[in-house]
Amino acid sequence: MMNNTTKSQVCKVPPGTVITGKWHKNSYRIVRPLGQGANGIVYLAESINGPVALKISENGVTITSEVNVLKHFSKVQGSALGPSFIDVDDWIRPGVSSPISFYVMEYIRGESFLSFIEKRGKEWTGILCLQLLSDLDRLHQEGWVFGDLKPDNLLVSGNPPKIRCIDVGGTTVQGRAIKEFTEFFDRGYWGAGSRKAEPSYDLFAVAMIIINVAYPSRFTRNDQPVKQLKSIIANTDSLRRIDTVLYQAIDGKYQRAADMRKDLVMKLSQAKKDQSVAPKKRATRGAQNQTRTSKKSRTYTNVSRNRQPKRAKQKGGVLETVLLLLFVSLGYLLYLYGQIL
Fold first, then answer.
1. Lowest-pLDDT range, 149-153, 266-270, 279-283?
2. Are the beta carbons of 85 and 71 closer than 8 angstroms?
3. What DSSP element (H or E) covers 102?
4. Distance CA 226, CA 297 (A)
5. Could you write out the DSSP letters of every residue in 120-141?
6. CA 252 to CA 259: how far, in whole Å?
7. What is the mean pLDDT of residues 169-173?
8. What percent of the chain has pLDDT over 70?
9. What confidence category does residue 336 fall into, taking pLDDT thresholds of 50, 70 and 90?
10. Which residues are 53's β-sheet partners?
11. What are the pLDDT digits (tens) for 304-335?
12. C-alpha to C-alpha distance for 275 and 269, rounded to whole angstroms
């Protein structure tokens, strides 16, 4: 039992507090909170090796589960989906009879997913989601499902930009029930499938993340949710370019993230090609119009030039006729003069 401290207050730690592990004796000074969830609070803390993220939870089982996930992530070759694991321990807090569990992980410096895209442009949505699908494919092959996949749990860090996850609390072994979810990104909420932990669950969430970029304020579900989602896709320019990929993810057709990634690459490439062809067509039309105008100008010029010789010929013909008449008249006068003599 806790002395004068309720469960809801256990995880709340003021800045400046130094947390020292009972077993490993590592110390961490709390700087500020980074985020709060159903199973604890994550803080920015200072360690002997620099800044870290430290999560405190009143539920030791949750801490153990998340630490196992982080350790497993570190074994997934080529994946940087989640933060790297650093330390796990118990803290004996003054005034609290039972030890408080905490773990320490890499502090990822970065910008929130939606904020990054808002500043850099929506064309980054496809690039980042292709990265995400690559990491998810590796995770799925190891037998896990991320679960609570949403923009709030995604950061973009580094140069070149790389998508990273900051909360692994919803990560679940495949075949079990999803532990944590957020309604807008949960296929069960939209009537598009169960909450069984399988790759298609995460891929539905990826489709919803892309839709969320187009609709940052999100929207309310109606009485035909799947039909509603497909209608939104069909009537939104940025989503319509990759419509078949989104439809299949919503319908649970993809069983592997690699397959969804492959189709997304093709759709994005085609959309880029169409965009580059459109200006060329406009330029071609302009050139054709200019060519027609030039041809007309040349035609008018030729006509004008052709008319000039005709006028000259007409003038020459009149002069010849006059001279001929004068010559005939002169001959006739000479004839009359000879008769008189």
1. 279-283
2. yes
3. strand 100-106
4. 60
5. H-THHHHHHHHHHHHHHHHHHH
6. 12
7. 91
8. 77
9. very low
10. 44, 105
11. 444 444 444 455 555 555 454 554 455 544 44
12. 10
Q: How many CA atoms lie within 13 A of 244 on its CB side?
A: 11
How many residues comprise the chain? Answer: 341
State the helix-helix crossing angle for 199-214 and 113-120, rounded to 10 degrees: 40
Tokens of 1: 């039992």
Any residues with CB less than 8 A from the CB of 337 and at least 6 apart, and which? Answer: none
| Pairing mode of beta strands 100-106, 162-165 | unpaired
Distance CA 70, CA 75 (A): 9
Burial letters for 49-84: b for 16+ Cβ neighbours within 10 Å, e otherwise?
A: eeebbbbbbbeeebbebbbebbebbeebeebbbbbe
- Helix axis angle, 243-250 to 199-214, nearest 10°: 130
**Partners of 20 in the beta sheet?**
27
162: enclosing H helix or E strand: strand 162-165
| From 137, 148, 186, 202, the catalytic residue | 148
177: which DSSP letter?
Answer: B
209-251: per-residue pLDDT in tens? 999 999 999 999 999 999 999 999 999 999 999 999 999 999 9
Structure tokens at 64: 């153990």
Tokens of 66: 């998340």
DSSP string for residues in 211-227: HHHH-TT-----SSHHH
Assess whether 148 carries a catalytic annotation. Answer: yes
How far is the CA of 197 from the CAs of 22, 38, 172, 177, 258, in angstroms? 35, 19, 6, 6, 17
Structure tokens at 175: 């075949």
The domains of the chain, with CATH numbers, are 7-106 (3.30.200.20), 111-268 (1.10.510.10)
Tokens of 267: 């759709």
pLDDT of residue 301: 44
Q: Are 10 and 58 in contact (CB under 8 A)?
A: yes
286 membership: H or E segment, kind and range? helix 257-340
Give the end-to-end CA distance of the chain in Å, rounded to a whole number. Answer: 165
* Reported pTM: 0.78
Amino acid at 166: I
CA distances from 177 to 172, 180, 184, 197, 255 (A): 8, 9, 18, 6, 17
